Amino acid sequence: MTLLGYSPVTYAAGGSSPLPNEVQQAKKITGTVSDAMGPVIGASVVIKGTSTGVATDFDGNFTMQAKPGQTLVISYIGYLNKEVKVTAGQQHYNITIEEDKQMLDEVVVVGYGTMKKSDISGASVSLGENAVKGSIITSLDQSLQGRAAGVTAVSTSGAPGSSSAIRVRGTATINANAEPLYVIDGVIVQSGGQSGAAYGLGDALGNGSVSTISPLSTIDPADIVSMEILKDASATAIYGAQGANGVVLITTKHGKSGEAKFSYNGMVAWNHQGKRLDMMDLRQYAQFYNNLVSQGELQANANLADPSILGKGTNWQDAVFQTAMQHSHQISAQGGTDKVQYYVSAGYMSQEGTIIGSKFDRLSVRANIDAQLKSWLKLGVNATFSDTNDDLKLADSDEGLINYSLTTIPSIPIYNIDGSYSSISQEGYTNPNPIALAMLDEIKLNRKKLTGNIFFEVTPIKDLVWHAELGYDISSSKGDRWKPTVNLGTWTRDDNYASVQKNSSTFWQLKNYITYSRTFGKHSATAMVGQECWKSRYDYNNVANTSLPSNEVHNPQLGDGTPQIGVGYGSSSMASFFTRWTYSYDSRYNLTYTYRYDGSSNFGPDKRWAGFHSVAGSWRFSNEKFIESWAGKVLSNGKLRIGWGQTGNSSIGGYAWGVSVSAINTALGKSYRPNNIANKSVQWESQEQWNVGLDLGFLNDRINLTVDWYRKQSEEMLMRLQVPIYMGSSEISNGSSRLAPPYGNYGTIRNMGVEIALNTHPLVGKFQWDSEFQISFNKNKLVSLGDSDTPLQGYGQWSDVVSLTHVGESLFSFYGYVTDGVYTSQEDIEMSPKPVKYPANGGFAKGTTVWIGDTKYKDLNGDGIIDEKDQTNIGSPMPKYTFGWTNTFRWNNFDLSIFINGSYGNKVANYLKMKLTHMNSAWTNQLVDVMDCTRLEPIDASKDYSAGVDRGDGQLVYNWYDDPTNVKITNPGAGMPRASIQDPNDNDRWSDRYIENGSYIRLKNVTLGYTFPKKMLRYIGLESLRVYANLQNLWTITDYSGYDPEIGVSTASVNVMGLDNGRYPSPTTYSFGVNVSF
Amino acid sequence: MKFNIFKFSLFALALSFGLTSCDDFLDRPAEDSYNEENYYQTDAQCIAGVGYLYSSPWYDLQRGYFMIGEMLSGNIFQSNNAYVSFTVNGSDQNLKLAAASMWSVIAHANTVYNSIKGAPESVSTAARNTSMGECLTWKAMAYFYLVRTFGEIPIIHDNAASLAAGDYNSVTKVKIADVYDYIILTLEKARTLLPKSNSAGRIDYYGATGLLAKVYLNRAGVTGSLNAGDMAKAAQYAKEVIDESGRSLMPNYEDIFRLQNNTCEESLIAWRWTANGNVWTAQNSLQCDLGMQGFDEFGDTWGDWTCPTVDLQEAFGIKLLEQQPDAWINNVDTRLKGTMMLPGFFYSYFWQDKGGFDYLRFQFDTSYNSGAAGEVKPGTGSNIVKHLYGNANDHVAGIGHSAAYMYNSLATHLLRLSDVYLTYAEAMTGTSGSTSDASAIDAFYAVRSRAIKNYERPATVTWNDIWKERRLEFAFEGDRWYDFVRVSYYNPDFCIKELENQKRNQFWNLTDLYKNYYETGSWTVTNQGYDENTSAPNVQMLMKKNQDTGKLMFQLPFATEDVTTNPNMATSADGVHVDVYATYSYD
User: Fold this and answer.
1) How far apart are CA A1061 and CA A1063, in angstroms?
2) N or C: which end of chain B has fewer CB within 10 A?
3) Chain B neighbors of A544, CB-CB under 8 A
4) Which chain B residues are Cβ-neighbours of A535 within 8 angstroms?
5) A829-846: pLDDT as tens digits
6) Which of A1040-1044, B20-24, B135-139 shows the highest mean pLDDT?
7) Helix H or strand E segment including B450
8) Which residues in B lie closer than 8 A to residue A732 (C-beta atoms)?
């Protein structure tokens, strides 16, 4: 494929010199330059020995004056030069150029340098600009989904600018931070905190260690030219201790010498949440309520007695979702001289969320300058500043807007007659009106970030380059929480609350590396040695107060309450030394060795330093004579790669090895408490990875296949010791009272998998079709937890265990009971294994013991009792494979891109469904499904209860529904248990009833673009103009019954994935955009 | 040119390597807080180092405190609550949090105890001993709650050591009698360390001694019948507190529960909460669960439906549907009004800025309470008074600083002097069931006559008198269930019968009755009635046969995940005998 808009330098002289005499005899010739795939745009056609030349246009055509006997030299980067003689009789020339196999492909970025792709022995994937452009994204990590083999990207939320959970080759650590290392232009991206608490938003965004705030949303995706994802250890080992989760190297745009070129990219989009859950409307709710009354569960309610006279009531889902507008604009200028090139840009984007009140906007500017100061000295400066604003809403979790909007009963109006928000309180149930909650309470986050670097490249002698660089990341953030006074009748908040937290952090990194490369004969070798160190310093201060005089101004200083002040600061640092040696013989045999020695302040004095090795080799067998002679026509590229390497992980935060003692105010004065139990010998987590890969190219690379197999094992995994509740360090305790168990090197995790990428060009010529397909298989296993047998626990919301990972199992499997229908009669209960609520004294009672119509759970261990021990693995959130398939079609000036992605074999835990089918309260709305729950009726309706009947233990009962011998099921086979307010059998306990198939195929993106012909544009002074329409998340095929099967990591608890507790669904996006350059 | 390169290189190299070469670059302990190494160096630091044991680790027990203590025992009603219906199981959130809290206290107490024990010479013996004694008393208190809640439990003597040993997943439960021995061992040590008088609000020698008396009283029935020796010990320690501590009862019962009396003499051991500082877990949030909506300005009260049972009303002699309001408004027992709100009650110490709090008006007058729903929300027609501080103004007036959303500073008394009095009286009944010992009658009389002014000193006091008195004196103080637990050790049938016969259900149609009374002043029962339909809970669902006595006794299940990890924690698993004195020591 040819690149649009690339101008080879040889074109520079075109038409500027005076015409030589010979030209008088010259005649007009025309031609078309194409390669195997079709016309080549921008190829240079020069008359040999002169400076006369032209470049081919959009259709590969050129027109020029030439004399017969002259030779045309056609050149294009990456291709072999071609010479064609001009003959007298020929006016039109069809010229086909061939790729230069020696420089098969582009130079790619690797850590601390670049390499020719053909020499690389490790596993990495490149994503070009098109992958970023192909989706409507606000945050860079969102573009990784389905685009790169071996990379699983699942967005954590559908909120604007929200984060994705990126896993390179599976989850390799159970530390909170399993995200890859992002490096932009050589500078490590500083996350600034993953949780809402880190920004001073407290638990407003959930209690987990991750939130939906994305550190990458501060970067304008339009500034990115490419991303390189380093996957195997031979590629990541150069990042040593920070490379265990993979490394994403991001390169921003740089200027090219020439006249200034301006571009404008603009886009407008509408985001829409189409799907609704089938909740009961007011009539259905009344029926459901009345059914409960008929079963003796509730007192009759006169307002609901006749459903036929009721309307539909409030549709809270419609109220909480909106169609949201989004637009973005970016202008850039680039150009320069031979010595100095620049790229500058400014961008603005603004996006509303599909949940009312949520919003994101970003302003960013960038300047990248490259300058050749002296023949031996090159200077580069990259700088970007961004300013983002989030209006956040808590969507998921028990206290999230999705939950509230679904569970609020339809009999409550949103507004009172006077237009104010309504509210309701019922027995045991007080509901903050979800719409009022969304619109009144504020969670705001402003982030400012200045990042970039300045570097020198010194070439004191030939082939030796010394790169010295200072990188920086200066960030600040302001997190605001505001809770106004509310007076909605029964729901009142007479005191308002304002909190402001300002964070600032300064990160700098200094690095020096010297690269010496030399080619002699068929040998080429490169040696690099370097040093790097970085230091990060943070501080925050928080001020909060209550009782502000009005709701107009949100300054905590105005508050009348007791002001709260929080201040903290600290620092961390790392020092490293590294080296890389590569050797290549005849581009057939390549060998790479890297070593890095890292010291981190996160560990105690004796455990600070560690070294990481890697070695990899590759054999380009397609360059072997005997293969070439045999298969040369078909096989254009063939390479076998084998690599092994080590990386590490140190991300446990500062001073986890010691015991910090923190202050806590008490009634007895200021007190100090230890935060954890110490472990001075905590050290690096290490990872070892094997990789075997095969690259094959057929038919002049019209078909490219890359297959990689890997096995990576993380040992001495850094984690907090898992302990039972009786050890007093349980995770369910409040953080501020918890004596955390020690951090240590406890576990071992293994990930094994295969990745396949197949890129083909099935159609070339006028109508072109490119297809890129990738699929990733990964299996992971918790190999050991050191001395501890305590399985890893994951919680649904507070302290309810939903996932349990035992040694020997795949990570984060859901754990619970297996259902086995419902009890159909008293005999059935008596004959079945005994549940916990089985009355030993024979006194069955519908409110306090197991009852007819309750869910029967399987007695898995066969001991005749159904208890905790009958819980089991009820499904894994890990997909068996994920895939992505991009198809690009081009015809004339139209281009159409269709991107499909999917996931297979993963289970989703529909936590929301548990709450929407529990049927143990009349004050939370339920799914329509509950109307088909198991219902009970008397066996003998005429049985006389006037004198009371013994229920089995001597207690008398007076109604059929309290008499276990006179109850049967009306609708056997309903599946769902009886509705029971007391629910003594705990029918809504965590069981396979809530585990659903999470597999899906999604039409992720369809883009149709039209590029206007250059001829036309010249008249209006434009260089290029493209308009496009994009549809994102258009449809999804899935069995999942919730909003969206793509769930991601839990924001409430670590060790939980794929749990839907009201995750903000990813919207369908309709967008239109324009790219102009002039 | 070469010279330029040389200079440039030298400069850059010096800059970069200079920074990384020193080891200090990587040495970064916590900078904004103390750490284990530089704290516990002075008397003040050791004393401050135990202050948080009076609040924060206990925070997660607040719900369990009244749910276990008062709902199971039939003092608090809430419809569809597992603690009211005896359907609590091992996945119950509140139970798990309660357990996590009690075990957390032990972990903290063990850790801080060791840190202070190892503090340098710069710490005086007095400060060291006092702090260590407080740690041990809290540890004993946590075990005391645990053994009574869960029955047989493991003993974690030193958390760090257990974690290092790595055997924490295979530990076994220990027999109840042995756990009591361990508590006694711990308290005896605390008594040798604590001063006779400590600073306000802190535990002193008599606090530990009073607790020890109560522990002996509980242990007395463990063998399946009352042990005269333990009863004598209980009496001996209680007497020591009564005679020697110099403490006396608060003259007016309701005053004990006011903010300004947080550290009154009567309070021997208490959770010392504060709203000042807004550190989550340092504060009292009980008003949120127990106070009515709109009771304070923070929008943080939702306790309308968490109300005193009909059974407790009747224990005070109140029958709402059979008596006239006069019966409760002019009730002789001043504890009634300090325990529950009833129609016609007026509280001058709540809503002081609005002229006092009128319970009935609160429900019906929107000019007085904008959220007045015009309906009676609590199923039993009354609401809880204890653990409430009032509104924002009452909080400032009581203690000088403001409350906030889910934050207040009211102390929660865990061991009051009147408890020691009644413990003494009960211990003196010995195994015979009554006493006519003058000092025992004095103790009983002191408690009852404080509440009932014209109460005459009796000639004998029976066990049953004390049993009933304890319920009235300590209603809603998280203790009643544990009275049942200790009696179930030796007389389970008594407990089953009493619990099954309680009036644990609600009334119907109270709104009409209250509204009419509010509007006309006439208390006219029409279509009101008590829910006779809801059958009594099957209380045996929470009982287990004691492996030694063969008697059923109350115990709640361990958290599901603890059982999954360590099957030795299963309800069906029995504890083992441990010779506590041979195995553990604090020396």
Assistant:
1) 6
2) C
3) 278
4) 25
5) 999 999 988 887 788 888
6) B135-139
7) helix B438-451
8) 60, 96-97, 100
Query: Across all residues in chain A, what is the average pLDDT?
Result: 87
Per-residue pLDDT tens over the stretch A873-920: 999 999 999 999 999 999 988 999 999 999 999 999 999 999 999 998
Q: Which residues of B touch A197 (CB under 8 A)?
A: none
Written as one letter, the residue type at A458 is V
Give the one of A428, A510, A736 whose C-beta lies nearest to B19's C-beta: A510
Q: Quick one: closest CA in A to B31, which residue?
A: A570
Dihedral-angle region of residue A326 (phi above 0 means left; psi in -120 to 50 means alpha; beta otherwise):
beta
Computed on alpha carbons and rounded to an integer, the radius of gyration of chain B in Å comes to: 27
Say if residue B337 is exposed, middle or buried (CB neighbours under 10 Å; 0-12, 13-18, 19+).
buried
- Residue B274: count of CB within 10 angstroms of its CB: 26
CA-closest candidate to residue A123, choices A169, A165, A179, A181 = A169
Contacts of B160 in chain A (CB under 8 A): 677-678
Measured between CA atoms, the residue of chain B closest to residue A867 is: B560
Percent of chain B with pLDDT over 70: 96
- For residue A506, report the phi and psi dihedrals to the nearest 5 degrees: -130, 125
Are A494 and B535 an interchain contact pair (Cβ–Cβ within 8 Å)?
Answer: no
Q: What letter does residue B280 receive in the DSSP assignment?
A: T
- Please tell me the distance from the alpha carbon of residue B539 to that of residue A795, in angstroms, as a whole number: 30
pLDDT digits (tens, 9 = 90+) for B538-576: 898 899 999 989 999 999 999 988 888 888 998 889 999
Residue A123 burial (CB < 10 Å; 0-12/13-18/19+)?
Answer: buried
pLDDT digits (tens, 9 = 90+) for A935-967: 999 999 999 998 888 888 777 888 899 899 999
The yes-or-no verdict on residue A41 having pLDDT over 90 is no
Say yes or no for a CB contact (<8 Å) between A662 and B409: no
Determine contact: A863 vs chain B, CB below 8 A: no
What CA dihedral angle connects B512, B515, B521 and B525, to 10 degrees? 20
Give pLDDT, residue A247: 92
CB < 8 Å from B in window 751-810 of A: 787-791, 793, 798-801, 804
The SS3 call for residue A360 is strand
Residue A299: CB atoms within 10 Å: 11
d(C-alpha A684, C-alpha A168), whole Å: 20
Q: Left if phi > 0, otherwise alpha if psi is -120 to 50, otherwise beta: which for A463?
A: left
Residue with tokens 């056997």: A972
Per residue, what are the HEC states of B37-54? Answer: CCCCCCHHHHHHHHHHHH
Per residue in A962-1004, pLDDT (tens digit) is: 899 999 999 988 889 999 988 889 899 999 999 999 999 999 9
Is the separation of the CB atoms in B167 and B571 below 8 Å? no
Query: What is d(CA A342, CA A334) in angstroms, rounded to the nearest whole number?
Result: 5
Name the one residue in this structure whose structure tokens are 């002996």. Answer: B216
**pLDDT for B470:** 98
Closest CA to B84 of B73, B95, B93: B73
**Checking DSSP bridges between strand A792-795 and strand A767-784, what pairing results, if any?**
unpaired
Q: Contact at 8 Å (CB) between A824 and A832? A: no
Nearest to A1011 by CA among A999, A1022, A997: A1022
Q: Is A870 on the interface with B (CB under 8 A)?
A: no
Backbone dihedral region for residue A812 (phi beyond 0: left; psi -120 to 50: alpha; all else: beta): left
* Closest to A543 measured CA to CA, from A530, A525, A558, A529: A558
Taking the model in full, what pTM does it have? 0.83
> What is this model's ipTM?
0.93
Instruction: Give 3-state DSSP helix, strand, coil % of chain A, rounded to 5.
Output: 15, 50, 40
